[in-house]
Amino acid sequence: MLYRSLAVVLALAVVLVVCQASLADKDDKVHEGKIVKAGAGKLTMTDKDGKNEHTHDIAPEAKITCDGKECKLEDLKAGFMVKVTMKDEKTVAAVEAKSK
User: Which CA distances in Å does 67 have to 28, 32, 81, 97?
Assistant: First the structure.
């Protein structure tokens, strides 16, 4: 009986570790902040606090929306709140911006 209980606890621990790792991967692919500038295939943004300025390449096929409507990268203005979904470490696959 003790061995069965130990096996169940061990199996649950493995499941928790695997689930936590997969959730961490999803969080790494999406981040939010404020737009500094956008255009010419690049998006410069900060974190939500206006710090940590960084620039991303925008994939040509990236889905870009502003206030829920499809738009162009050049339509995004400084100060808009933005949520980006990364295609890889440097390239953005989707941009969701909010003007308010």
Answer: 23, 15, 10, 6
Reading the block at residue 100, the tokens are 């308010």
pLDDT at 90: 85
- pTM for this entry: 0.70
Report CA-CA distances (Å) from 27 to 23, 85, 92, 97, 99. 6, 10, 14, 18, 23
Q: Do the beta carbons of residue 73 and residue 39 sit within 8 Å?
A: yes
Confidence grade of residue 52 (pLDDT, cut at 50, 70, 90): very high
| Residue spans of alpha helices (H) in 30-93 | none
Residue ranges and CATH numbers for the domains of the chain are: 30-98 (2.40.50)
Summary mean pLDDT of the chain: 84
What contacts 74, CB < 8 A, 6 or more positions away? 38, 39
